[in-house]
Write a structure and sequence with these properties.
Elements lengths: L2 H7 L5 H9 L3 E3 L2 E2 L14 E3 L2 E2 L7 E6 L21 H6 L2 E2 L8 E7 L2 H8 L7 E7 L7 H7 L2 E2 L2 E2 L4 E4 L5 E6 L6 H8 L4 E9 L2 E2 L9 E3 L2 H11 L6
């Protein structure tokens, strides 16, 4: 791996910044100053220090974010707040992006990563990755709502896959489990039943549960077990 790429992948500088800093003598490899950005290094064997900070190389990063309302699930937006703004600069420099999308007014678990293969596979219809949402609605759900969700509700010219609806005793709240992610799907499903969602929060994604200690807008990296759960659900190998 090139030295400037390793530095960039660690999120401490862009590729261009890393190359410039290396030429200025701000990086060492195994204790020796290196001024060639294209110098080959082995992340597992070579000790790289950049601007006095030892670097620990990780091929990919996986982050759990408790998405607050009002943010769009994007890496950039000229007019609206976007979720990438909630992460520190070193994560943004790595090029993290959301795995799937939550509507602007939908809150809860959003996984972010720079692992494109795992993100693609986790969102693939073939994987049937489960997503659980808690909801409140404007009117009590009819008694046949659970059966309608289980049969597959038709939206326009397509029928949704069977979904699991578990209303609370008041039938004004509960959970919905989906294995797909059509545009505004849950909201449209409720509208098909003559109802309206008043709040929606994703609680789990691919077997990973939102950490209750995270307030809206807060984040943390996935634990090793959570990362393994995500990779298993997506059918990808653990990065070296």
């Amino acid at each position: 791996m090139r030295l400037d790429k390793l530095i960039s992948d660690c999120g401490v500088a862009t590729r261009k910044e890393a190359a410039s800093a290396v030429r200025a003598g701000q990086a060492t490899v195994n204790g020796n100053v290196v001024r060639e950005p294209d110098r080959k290094v082995d992340p597992g064997l070579d000790a790289v220090v950049f601007r006095g900070i030892p670097l620990v190389y990780r091929r990919f990063v996986y982050v759990m974010l408790n998405k607050p309302t009002g943010y769009v699930s994007a890496t950039d937006d000229r007019s609206l707040p976007y979720v990438l703004e909630l992460l520190p600069p070193e994560y943004r420099k790595r090029g993290l992006f959301p795995v799937g999308r939550l509507d602007r007014d939908t809150t809860g678990l959003l996984v972010m990563t720079d692992d494109g293969q795992t993100a693609h596979r986790a969102l693939s219809p073939r994987r049937h990755v489960e997503k659980v949402y808690s909801f409140t609605c404007i009117a009590p759900l009819p008694l046949d709502a659970e059966a309608a969700f289980a049969d597959g509700i038709t939206l326009g010219d397509e029928t949704c896959k069977p979904a699991l609806l578990k209303p609370a005793s008041d039938r004004l709240s509960g959970t919905v489990t989906l294995t797909e992610g059509k545009y505004h799907q849950i909201k449209r499903m409720f509208e098909r039943l003559g109802n309206k969602i008043t709040s929606l929060k994703r609680e789990t994604f691919a077997g990973i549960a939102l950490d209750p200690a995270l307030a809206p807008g807060e984040w943390r990296e996935l634990t090793e077990r959570e990362t393994e759960t995500l990779l298993s659900a997506a059918g990808t190998d653990k990065p070296e």
